[in-house]
Here is the input.
Amino acid sequence: MDVSPIVSQITSTFWYLAIFLIFVSILKSSWFKGVFGEFVVNITAKLMLDKDEYHLIKNVTLPTENGTTQIDHIIISRYGVFVIETKNMKGWIFGGANQKTWTQQIYKHKNKFQNPLHQNYKHLKTLESILDVNDNQLFSVIVFIGDSTFKTEMPDNVTSGVGYIRYIKSRRNILLTDDDVTRIVLQIEGVKFAQSLKTNRDHVRHVKRTLAEKNASKLCPKCDGQMVVREAKRGPNTGNNFWGCTNYPKCWGTTKT
Here is the structure.
């Protein structure tokens, strides 16, 4: 009996299944969620904001004193410079303007993440140091994309979906001249790093180095070993960060970030 057709069919099925699983893993990855969230903001900004009045610059990597910082979107207009941080998350979101960390809850599972307003503050200060602008001409805007719901009262500049468009359009006080807008656009375009794999790798290395420095004093609650920040690869918290013991798998000590 010639079994080669059966073997060929099984092999083809295996490869189709492997490709499908790879595709699904990419869709669930934190990288894809970030890219998709930025894509949604990019498209809605182009469709819903007058391009003659609002100038969009996306995926901006800027130099800082100790490395780089990456900004999802910057929108420049006579009404100010809007610095946008995008979060593609699902579940219930709990947080306050002055809290160090916010909480994402999916069913009974909770995950802590950095207050995005605090995260965006570094972006604003970097732009303030580069551009000849005052802090009252810079606006921090947080955009949640995905199936998430705010369960606590949020500031006006923390929005979901296209709510950020309403916030931007609500700012009607003229803070910059047309010449100022042109100058700022040219300054950002001139100082930002070119978009490339190298730029992204360098920024990722800087972020990992910063995390490593923060990790230095974090000890495991079970064995007093060193803790490092890891990313969950499976389960309801896939894509989220947590503290894990470097003695794993001998020690399973973990804590939330």
Summary: Residues 4-28 form the longest helix (25 residues). The chain is about 40% helix and 30% strand.
